[in-house]
Design goal:
- It is a single chain.
- The protein is an all-alpha fold.
- Helix content is about 70%, strand content about 0%.
- It contains eight helices and no strands.
- The radius of gyration is 14 Å and the shape is globular.
- The chain starts with a helix and ends with a helix.
């Protein structure tokens, strides 16, 4: 049974799922594209580059799990890019649901071994999702 801030946030997400997906989307871009650009929120939320580094460096997620997550993230980022290009087969809501499921798993992995990152990922979700859901901001993030 999970305890703490992340568990409280996860419980709230089951009621309001649209609250939580931004961080995973940003994480996906960060892991896949290795973006140097930051996506800062006004509330002190983490930027994409910092999330990428912290997830890469955390001991809370093993190497095999990180590889599996990276593969899933690459698929989601590809589908989000296709959506923004007008050739996607899923709606933004469908993509958001996929992100939610993946984010919930990442938070669960982090909560016991890296509670600080679990918290930071939780509070960074809204501004990061807003960036990824906006076609213009998404395009600027994916430029090299």
């Amino acid at each position: 049974m999970m305890t703490g801030l992340a568990a409280d946030k996860l419980a709230k997400l089951r009621v309001a799922p649209n609250f939580f997906f931004g961080a995973l989307a940003a994480l996906a871009l960060g892991l896949v594209l290795g973006m140097p650009a930051a996506a800062h929120g006004d509330s002190g939320a983490l930027d994409v580059a910092t999330l990428r580094v912290r997830l890469k460096d955390t001991p809370a997620i093993g190497a095999v799990a990180k590889l599996r997550l990276k593969s899933e993230i690459e698929d989601l980022v590809s589908d989000l890019a296709a959506f923004h290009a007008g050739r996607g087969t899923e709606t933004l809501e469908d993509l958001h649901a996929r992100y939610r499921d993946l984010v919930l798993r990442v938070i669960a992995l982090l909560e016991q071994g890296d509670a600080s990152l679990a918290h930071d990922l939780t509070v960074s979700t809204d501004p990061l999702w807003a960036t990824l859901a906006d076609p213009g901001q998404f395009a600027s993030l994916t430029k090299s």
